[in-house]
């Protein structure tokens, strides 16, 4: 039934021309930029609110990655040769299919923001519509089945509840942030071990070629786990040693912070990650990229712009 639904949507897509397909491909790939926006707003708008939103995202992405590499569900076009995904969507349709990472990302980021701005009805409505469009697009583009998308939405709801409970735990007692730091480090060490120890399905096509290479499937999980633990390490270190504030920021402070954090992200994405891919196994490169992106935004960037602000006596 799920694959039949995709075939039905595929017939609609192929009869509607390229405009709608290209538009939904674009919207479908925007959740990654949503994370970037959250990381920037963390430094220049409201540290506490966007820290909570980022926690919602990393809990959801961790859950999603764990379920993906545990279930090991192949993409729709591997299970049903008649399914032809939109070409422009293939670049981001990596890893296993179940659950939808794009949907869970859009939903968790949206819920994370909405939980901090509950009274802004316009924002709530816009983010709800955005999440539903992303979810629909993953089926329309033949990248995911309806159940992939639905479970992605459920993951986001679970992550929001977990992030809320975690925030209360951290605030409850001084030193609980250290418990989170140590506990998360142990948890993610176990998750990384799980990625490489667990068995993966090895199915062959008619020419005896492996249908899905487990090493390629591991890359997304490595990135997601690295991003999560990189964020938690940076969050703890910033909380203990930098302690910057987003209260009463003027335009020049915001500009400097935006410049510093953006420059670090570009250096990692355009220089360090390509170099790591050329030198190391892609899974290690993904770990480096995943860990450094949040670590630079949440700890290194604040350390640099805090020193600049003190030096300029702002």
What does this structure look like?
The radius of gyration is 20 Å and the shape is globular. The chain starts with a helix and ends with a helix. The protein has helices at 2-14, 18-28, 31-44, 47-71, 76-79, 101-114, 121-140, 146-172, 176-197, 214-242, 251-279, 282-311. It has 314 residues and is mainly alpha-helical. It is 76% helix and 0% strand.
Secondary-structure topology with pairs:
Blueprint: H1 2-14, H2 18-28, H3 31-44, H4 47-71, H5 76-79, H6 101-114, H7 121-140, H8 146-172, H9 176-197, H10 214-242, H11 251-279, H12 282-311
Helix pairs in contact: 2-7, 3-4, 3-6, 3-12, 4-6, 4-8, 4-10, 6-7, 6-8, 7-8, 9-10, 10-12, 11-12
Quick recap of the structure?
With 314 residues, the chain is mostly helical.
What are the main properties of this structure?
about 325 residues; mainly alpha; about 75% helix; about 0% strand; globular
Structural class label: mainly alpha
Mean pLDDT: 95
Note the gap between the termini: 62 Å
What is the number of beta strands?
0
Order of helices and strands: HHHHHHHHHHHH
Helicity, as a percent range: over 70%
Number of helices: 12
